[in-house]
């Protein structure tokens, strides 16, 4: 029988435009992670899984998982790996750690996500060029298709098909930046209103600057352990209850099945829900961290994660159903729009947020009310051709 696995703690480096090196970020997040968990230290770690997307281009360093282990004094004598799945790399690292524990290969795993993306203003062209590698560089990247222009097409099509409004897109950013203003690790800690979003610099119509997540340095870590080990350490763990992942044609955008939705997200969510025994996600999920790389992303995800019918995502946010006291509290840490998006670290940070929401260890202004007990994390990657979903709960059953 597969074994249950649980998050028992974790920590962050500060996120933003940092003068810190890639190595500095590893050590900041690693130290914060071990400081967060009494009874576990580097000597206890049997496996290390590191989400990192482009250290070769951003930090001129490869073979980074053993490097991170050495920096943290971890031997990882049973298993070690770097995961690269673009924006879902952090969740991929967590998923592999969970599978290793479920299979009985490990009892204690360290999961890290680390990205050094800001090379300074003088190297912005290099940074942007590196980001086009996430798409099909030879077919899409060379024709100017980067992340903002790609998601602007989804926004335009969704607005055309379903009547989604510019104000509804802006409301996603307003909500998430309000949460980030109360998150000391977030890159952007300032509240905005709808007019601020609508009047911000136009990037790729209809998306403006405040509809877009930032280029960000950052790192986060988690300690994942077997259920038996978790019960020895704490009575406030976050157990992995389900995990789904799906990919379909679309790494080149001409092969995408849709420009207004992601059927891959639906497949991944349904797989995770089935494993977790979730029949009605709106009724059974308390908190969710989902991939709002652009404001339109969150609206589409409400729909394709099965929370509302297709075309009703804009109304979901307009009606306050994704607020802290709504049907599902969405992105209480501030999401990618508020925290920034250090690619390999985002999924790890999302899972850490759900854990901290369960334990009540977040700032009161962004704490989900009524002691949340169930949660979800979601990432898309590349051209949205891959979607990853994981469910978490206080009770492993």
CATH topology of the domain at 5-120 and 215-233: Peroxisomal Thiolase, Chain A, domain 1
Decide which structural class fits the backbone: alpha/beta
Oligomer: single chain
The count of helical stretches stands at: 15
Q: Would you identify the CATH architecture of the domain at 5-120 and 215-233?
A: 3-Layer(aba) Sandwich
Largest sheet: 10 strands, mixed
Structural shape: globular
Order of helices and strands: EHEHHEHEHHHHEEEHEHHEHHEHHEE
Relevant CATH superfamily of the domain at 5-120 and 215-233: Thiolase/Chalcone synthase
Low-confidence stretches: none
Strand tally is: 12
CATH class of the domain at 5-120 and 215-233: Alpha Beta
Q: Can you give the mean pLDDT?
A: 94
Q: What is the percentage of strand-forming residues?
A: 15-25%
Provide the helix percentage. Answer: 25-40%
Global Rg: 19 Å
**Separation of the first and last Cα atoms:** 14 Å
Strand order of the largest sheet: 3-2-4-7-1-8-12-11-9-10
Domain Thiolase N-terminal: 7-228
Protein name: Acetyl-CoA C-acetyltransferase
Keywords: Isoprene biosynthesis, Transferase
GO biological process, one term: isoprenoid biosynthetic process
